[in-house]
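ERR on first pass: missing label on line 2. Operator R.T. fixed the label and resubmitted. Corrected input:
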Amino acid sequence: MKSSFYGVIMAGGRGTRFWPLSTRKMPKQFLKLTGCKTMLQETAIRFKGICDPGRIMVVTGIDHGETVLEQLPCMDHKNLLLEPSGRNTAACIGWAARTLVNRGEGSAVMAVVPSDHVVDNAEGFRETLSIAVGPAMDGMLVTIGIPPDHPATGYGYLEQGEEIEKDIYRVSAFREKPDTDTAKEYVASNRYFWNAGMFIWRADTILNEISLHLPELAEGLEKLGSDTSPEISLYNSLPSISIDYGVMEKAENVAVVPARFGWNDIGDWPTARKCDVAKGEVISVDSENTTVWNEGKLTVLMGLKNVSVVETDSVTLVMSDEYSQKLKDVVAKLEKEKPDLV
Amino acid sequence: MKSSFYGVIMAGGRGTRFWPLSTRKMPKQFLKLTGCKTMLQETAIRFKGICDPGRIMVVTGIDHGETVLEQLPCMDHKNLLLEPSGRNTAACIGWAARTLVNRGEGSAVMAVVPSDHVVDNAEGFRETLSIAVGPAMDGMLVTIGIPPDHPATGYGYLEQGEEIEKDIYRVSAFREKPDTDTAKEYVASNRYFWNAGMFIWRADTILNEISLHLPELAEGLEKLGSDTSPEISLYNSLPSISIDYGVMEKAENVAVVPARFGWNDIGDWPTARKCDVAKGEVISVDSENTTVWNEGKLTVLMGLKNVSVVETDSVTLVMSDEYSQKLKDVVAKLEKEKPDLV
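pass 2 clean. output:
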């Protein structure tokens, strides 16, 4: 009997680096950045054919439950897990796994994916998952590795170990975000992948690994029971740690399947430019490498390079590319001074 | 008997280089750029004490007559001259002079000033006019010369000749906009002024000069009669030429009085920055020499230098300073494609 397959979508997070478009009320994953569907919708549709709509599971913040159900009307309400607070990916993923185990679906294969990444080839995505399902059913922790096309310093890297079978390799090491020289070495070696935070494993496998490496989290998850909207005090007692740092880096049985699709985490405005994230009318005079987002106005750019101009009703951001990582500092400042704007 | 004194304000023009704030419907001179009064109002108020409100004369486009009367409710309606089309400064000034002569006020002294310049010291402005009135009553064409504080290439220059009396000099030459090297020589010599387009003369003096140097204009002006809102076909028959090129450069009896005030023509967005032309809330991160204009939003600038960000309801302009002179090309293009926006 074939195991059941769950698409587990992590839809927490603020998308701070996408402010002012992404706000607390409507974070990046719920926005139509790349077309006529939201990033969450694109993510769910990508599972079509390998995952029954009734087996899409979404973990999101308590404030965004309604938004998720509006955007994914076919999903089973019992698969909507509402976090009263953000406790990082180990808690989020552990809770999803625990929920399946509680329902007697411990042998189900979960494909855990972020809700706010761009995948340029849904068919390639499904092919990649199909390859990953085999070792996952055999008890491996499978990651999807993105072949790097440039020495990015903003992602963690997976080091490719021995081949297990065609297109499946052991991960010999997890590497934190490298400096530029190290990143260049990684890319030149052809033995490293970007860690895109996409994982395939059985629910019971990851829960066992959590018990082994994060026993406190495992105990906390048991206390949550089957409530899909737990008390904040209960959820806040879970340790806040990433699945990479808390489990993957310590685990033995980790494999990587190279992605058969183009990927972009559109982590900030300059990165999003590559995915044509843009809206509104523009007149551009001697301007290069710019991003414009406006809601029904005309934006005129004259003599600008490497700049994003993002307008909402209440805010206009004009940002030179090299400042994209500092945007979160502005948001943090506004959080105190003008909370309505973030 | 002392001659009567008229403040003649030239309020035509589109202020194209101030787009998108300045539009055909509401050009720069009717906007509150520097404070709680419009530039036209500031210009009129500057005459207070030396010119009776009933002797403020305004020449403007036919579409802006109501705006002028709203902004200057104390002016005498018969002193509002409505141009059916723009025919440059010789026609505009000649018409004002002709109107006074027709009313038997040929001996009146007219101080002709643009409506969209910033004068930082109204008292100094009045002092300067008081000095200029003497030679004007004696039949001179008096200009106000702005002592240059940098080698600007965007203005014409007046060359200072012999001293007529204290603070009054003959103009030995009018110089067109110079190149940078020439402008530097002018400034270093201490013998040149910027030509700010401010003139003081008797109505009959300038009309005689127009008869002499622009007889076709003089004849056309006679045909206008005393109608303050002439037919467009009649007005269009006037030659379109600047008073500088058409009269001043050819006249003999030209004097200059050095300005006793700070002056800025706020000709474009970067120039306006020096006069603190700005509106709206701004957060600025590592940004220098920027101008922001918004109507009740927050503008966030990150890593920008020498840039203006100007927002209206329908347009956002983000412009590097060195493109300020090319803005008129954008406006010209939009004139055809999106006339509502200009």
